[in-house]
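= Paired protein data =
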Amino acid sequence: MANVPVKSSAPAPADSNQSYGSALAIVTTLFFMWGSLTSLNDVLIPYAQHVFKLRLAASMLIQTAFFSAYFVFSVPSSKIIDWIGYRKAIVVGLLTMVIACLGFYPAAKIPSFPFFLGALIVLATGITILQVAANPYVAVLGKPRTASSRLNLTQAFNSLGTAVFPWVGARVILGTTSAAIAQSTSQEANAIVRLYVYFFAVALFILAMGIGISKLPEIRSAEHHIGEKVNDSLWKHPNLIFGAIGIFVYVGGEVAIGSSIANYLALPGIGGFAADITDPATRYHAALAEAARYISIYWLGAMIGRFIGSALLQKIKAGKLLAFAAVVAALLVTISVLSNGHVAMWAILAVGLFNSIMFPCIFTMGIAELGPLTGDGSGILNMAIVGGAVIPWLVGKAADLINRVYYPAMTQGETSWGHGIHYALILATICYLYILFFAVSGSKPNSERYAKA
């Protein structure tokens, strides 16, 4: 059976570039918002360790709860798109996120870790609907040849959110180095309410109403309506299957590093923060507040890389650029794990720059030539984002194991500040090596894979 390429079913009208530009601008706002909310999880992890006295692996349940929603709700989200279309699905996703943000009020005020996890699951469900709708929408909103470049550009604004809000969250929730020592849990709870309830819930509701009354262009060649028969199967496209594994390990590795930065850089042998404080437990808590701000640098690298990548992908094939990024990322993680001090610190932060183009490239190569199955393929790829739930937890578990064996006396409540997290991040190197395989071989679409058959 011949494959159907991802393209418009009719020639674009003369003014399509202008209308597509407006649509891209609107959709890009979504990327910024969900990037901002996702990155705040990295700040909630040290917050939860402090308030609920959690070990590293237990605090990583924040990411596990959040990213598990992608696995559960991605395919249902693709069915929502089949049922009501891309634009209405985006509105549903935004309103779901509003409900989730309101749920942070009781979670912070009680306070209750299960409530936090519940609010995060609902929030991730809304983001999942947005991801399943927006990523393929951007990919098919123009020429197939520039799909990776286009998605990199919109993802750059996603990274802008992930660069800005960890810094905001670290300052508002965790406080300054000195204030972090004296700040009460009720003050931290009020900060969470201000961010999630007063800011994000209101902003998301306004955005939902705006998109609800807007006229986003329809891409019918990439839509599959319920009851419509398609003479093709997702499982006949190996690039989709390999791409799903690629998304799993990419998101897992990226999130594992981002989630670990505060604990990683707070180690005296890495960041050297709050070195003037003599009591180890007090020093570590103060250092966390300072180290958490560097999360923004990690995500800022991703933003810069995506703007650069958007330009490079106009001239370089996505597979070649992805292979280069995977090799460099693997080397940087390995260097960080095998070194100490500022070499280890800046090597791990620099990984963000090379993570930048990975998701857009893997995604667009994964859905290549799916045609009317594009929405369903997007659901499969977004299910694979569950890697952000699995791999960070494995890294945290490995770090706890190393700490128990080699640093048994170094505890702050239930949180260890031994170098376990330093060495456990080697798991991210394995993730990047698989991405290298996908870039070189696994990403080939059927037209290329079976060209000589």
The CA atoms of residues 29 and 157 lie 8 Å apart. Confidence is low (pLDDT under 50) at residues 1-18, 176-182. The beta strands are 411-412, 415-416.
